[in-house]
Amino acid sequence: MRLHWDLDLGYLVRTPGTDIRLVSLEFKRGDATTLDLLFYRSGVSVLLGADFDIRFALKEKNRYDTNPVVYTASFTEDANNKIYTARPSLNTTELNALLQVDNTNSNDLASVELAGEVSYRIGSDSDEWLSTQTLKVTVHNDVVRGEEGTPTSAQQPDNYLTKDRVIEYLPLVVGLTGGGSTKLDGVASPSLPLGKLVALVDNGTNPAVLRTYELDASTAAESSPDVIRPDDYNATTNARVWRLRAPSAGNAVRYDASQGLNGTQQTTARSNIGAAARNHAHRTFLEALVFAPESQVSLGTYDLFMLPDLSSGQVDFKLRLGSPANDNMAFQIFAQGPSNGWGGWNSIGMAYIDSGQFESSVVSASLNPGDMIRLEVQNDGSGYYGGPAYGLYAFASIFTSTEP
Q1: CATH, domain 2-140, list 3.30.300.20, 3.20.20.70, 3.40.190.10, 2.60.40.10
Q2: In terms of Cα–Cα distance, which of 347, 377, 342, 343 is closest to 365?
Q3: Collapsed DSSP state (helix, strand, coil) of residue 384
Q4: Please, what is the Cα angle at 21 between 17 and 26, to 5 degrees?
Q5: What is the pLDDT of residues 12-37, one digit of tens each?
Q6: Prediction pTM value
């Protein structure tokens, strides 16, 4: 650190040849700092002459009668370069006490503010001291002390969003085997990375089941639904299979394909009917299309989905229409399952969509894995349900842990 003392002005300046005062200094605790002090007259550096005595001190702020916490009087002269140099220690008992360096984490201080000054005299017997302005000095606590251990590397948490753990929903795939674009074994696999996760609605069961598969390096034989061999499987060049990674039995996210408008089977736009799960950091989003997009929303009760194997936590529900409501609409959301001991359907809140709007208000509830969700389209209390409106979607955002 280089300090410039303008003897004509009588104080330390930020830059030689200017009159801008130096106001503050910063140091780091524990360091051995080098101070280079230069003196100037008429903008030219000068020497003090023989028998000089220079001192540098830092004291607690507003405590001038105390002893310094940092001090040096050991300045040496470089006559050729006209520099006076000292190396004050910032690892003193007094400074450590101010910063509470005592191996106790609960009382650590990030920094301490001190008062600093440089003084000099010519002749060891002289009482004619000259001093700089008092400087505001901040000493920061040190981070690296040479005594630290090496931190333990942690496993990548499952709820962190990483590129290889994003689940891609395949809306056109509605079965497992049989080949073609609508079956999982018909999906081209050689160009896909190992660990690729996909989700699909398997309409081969009743009710249909949302399944998640991971592309795995393996020669395992096909065993549906647990292991699906791609049609382009090759033991030498493409020995990979799809392995089921769905939630455990009883906790699959389900959509009843026979549950449609007025309880009738939906035969159109089937690729849009079902549920999809998308993992993000600290949350999972579930989406369910309750009706085919061209179907009109009617009064009635409809099962949505069952919450998968996730940590218990807050679930936020939002409803969205494919076309704006003609009038105010009301929706009651029910749940039953582990949260209430399977004690029947309990209302967890009302969602509303105002006339001319597409989206509802958000309904929040604390639920558990395995809870089943049901939606009831009601009137708004004045005898109107707001029809016609089309394409009702239900969204559930499940918060599985605290945000960072």
Answers
A1: 2.60.40.10
A2: 347
A3: coil
A4: 115
A5: 999 999 999 999 999 999 988 999 99
A6: 0.42
* 147, two tokens: 């005594």
* Banded pLDDT at 281 (limits 50, 70, 90): very low
Identify the residue whose tokens are 């089943």.
372
Spatial distance between the Cα atoms of 29 and 395, rounded to a whole number of angstroms:
54
Token duo for residue 164: 């290889």
Kind plus residue range of the DSSP H or E element containing 94: helix 93-98
**Residue 300 to residues 67, 310, 384, Cα–Cα distance (Å):** 83, 29, 13
Chain region(s) in the chain for CATH 2.60.40.10: 2-140
Amino acid at the residue 291: F
Q: What distance, in Å, lies between the first and last C-alpha atoms of the chain?
A: 39
d(CA 226, CA 202): 13
Region of residue 309 (phi > 0: left; psi between -120 and 50: alpha; otherwise: beta): beta
Query: Do you find a cis peptide bond into 207, omega within 30 degrees of 0?
Result: yes
* All CATH 2.60.120 domain ranges in the chain, comma separated: 258-399
Q: For 186-235, what is each residue's pLDDT tens digit?
A: 999 999 999 888 888 888 876 667 788 999 999 999 999 999 999 999 99
258-399: CATH number = 2.60.120
For residues 287 and 169, give the distance between their C-alpha atoms in angstroms, rounded to a whole number.
11
- Is residue 312 pLDDT above 70, yes or no? no
Distances 285 to 26, 95, 274, 373 between C-alpha atoms, Å: 49, 53, 14, 14
Vertex 384: Cα angle to 381 and 388 (nearest 5): 145
Alpha-carbon distance values, 31 to 27, 90, 105, 142 (Å): 8, 5, 21, 9
- Provide the token pair at 322: 């494919």
**Mean pLDDT along residues 341-348:** 85
104 and 127 in contact (C-beta within 8 Å)? Answer: no
pLDDT band at 138 (very low <50, low <70, confident <90, very high): very high
Residue 250 · residue 237 · CB < 8 Å: no
Q: Tell me how far apart the alpha carbons of residues 210 and 300 are, in angstroms, rounded to a whole number.
A: 24
Backbone angles phi, psi at 121, to 5 degrees: -145, 160
